[in-house]
Amino acid sequence: MIKEERFSVKQISHLAGVSTRTLRFYDQKGLLTPDGRAENGYRFYTADSLLRLQQILFLRELRFSLEQISTILDDPHFDLPSALDAHERNLQVEINRMNQLITTIRKTRLNLQGEAQMAPEEYFNGISEEKQKEYQEYIEKRYDPKLVQESNRRYSKLSEAEKKALMDQGERITREIVAAIPFGTASPQAQVAVGHWYQHINQFYPCSLEIFYGLGQLYLEHPDFTAHYQKYHASMPQFLTEAMSIYCRNRGYEPQS
Predict the structure, then answer these.
(1) Which of 6, 80, 244, 256 is the most buried (most CB within 10 A)?
(2) Could you tell me if 140 and 148 are in contact, meaning their C-beta atoms sit under 8 angstroms apart?
(3) In this model, does residue 191 exceed pLDDT 60?
């Protein structure tokens, strides 16, 4: 644990690599307020403030808004060790993704120089068309094929920049859901995050609560989806399925037994 001492605004700015202007802004937002004033009248922070600022910066790295960060940190059930575990898992996922991209770049360079050969599938990062077709056929068996066609139609009309923005949004929401795991499936944090996921899905096709509920079950039924979400957190598939079920029930949907 950090030894208890006082830090001036300038010191904490230097330690954290943030501007004094940012610290003043966090103070105005009630996100990080100084712990008091010294005899000379200058504001100071304590070790507890360093830990809180660390969490703020971690969550900013994971693309949470300041409003979301405030809700998470000010929750009386916020558990710092669990949050640190979640940060580590999220960052490891990002490290793995970056390492994969670096590997693809290096292989492609060697391939262009004639020093190595690449298998066709090594050129592409992400889900293959074969997998996309497999998922599409699987979903069409469960839901109205017209919805799948509508999803494909909407997606195909997007520009590359819009597609990337949509995928980035999905990644941010997924990380938001992971951050809510310590609070439980029925917690406000989880339900707000799942609400964001519901809105995200509706950008692909009109998603009723019935379909959204079924989609949640799919995350546990299909091994590829289960494996995908377990990369973020071991309990993510079960957590997401239960949280989505609660979300639908809270809005009046009762699944048929």
Answers:
(1) 244
(2) yes
(3) yes
Residue 57 and residue 64: Cα distance in Å, rounded?
Answer: 10
pTM recorded for the entire structure: 0.51
Please say whether the beta carbons of 112 and 165 come within 8 A: no
What the block records as the tokens of 221 is 């039924």
